[in-house]
Design brief:
Length: 163
């Protein structure tokens, strides 16, 4: 496993095998890219917040969708790390890995573990995506293996089980 540097990320984007739509220079880090918030869904409330600032009540789960759409090549996956700005305010993130071959926006789960309302501006940087190269390209990409969220746009939650 090897982590891509800023130079590697930009080169792979230039070549076209790695994609970050709505790329923003401010999001580039030395070893990753900061993803911004497009919309927020707060558990127990109807509707999505797409502009202004979301006020997350204490001890409340919420979901963030990213501005950027990512397109992962077959030999790269990515870790997601909550920015320490949010950790310092009491937010805990529940993230997974972005699989090789995934394409779409990301839905990220988070929890305001503090006793205070946390104000989160739309378009603000929320988490860092750290790219890792695989030892070899995946034989079958995310879209071929499960692909449950392939091509998603906006906050996308798991379907409710019936029966």
């Amino acid at each position: 496993m090897c982590i891509l540097s800023d130079k590697d990320i930009l080169e792979r984007m230039r070549r076209g095998d790695l994609g970050i739509s709505d790329y923003h220079e401010r999001g580039q880090t030395p070893n990753g890219y900061d993803l911004r918030i497009a919309e927020i869904a707060i558990r127990g409330r109807d509707g999505l917040i797409r502009e202004g600032t979301a006020s997350i009540p204490p001890r409340t789960m919420f979901y963030v969708s990213t501005v950027e759409r990512v397109r992962m090549p077959p030999d790269v996956c990515a870790q997601l790390w909550l920015r320490t700005t949010w950790i310092r305010k009491g937010v805990i993130g529940a993230f997974g890995k972005i699989d090789a071959g995934f394409e779409g926006t990301l839905t990220l789960g988070a929890y305001n573990a503090s006793d205070d309302i946390v104000e989160i501006p739309i378009k603000e940087r929320f988490c860092q995506m750290v790219f890792e190269t695989l030892h070899s390209a995946a034989e079958k990409s995310y879209g071929e293996r499960s692909g449950n969220y392939q091509g998603q746009t906006g906050v996308t939650l798991a379907p409710k089980k019936t029966g």
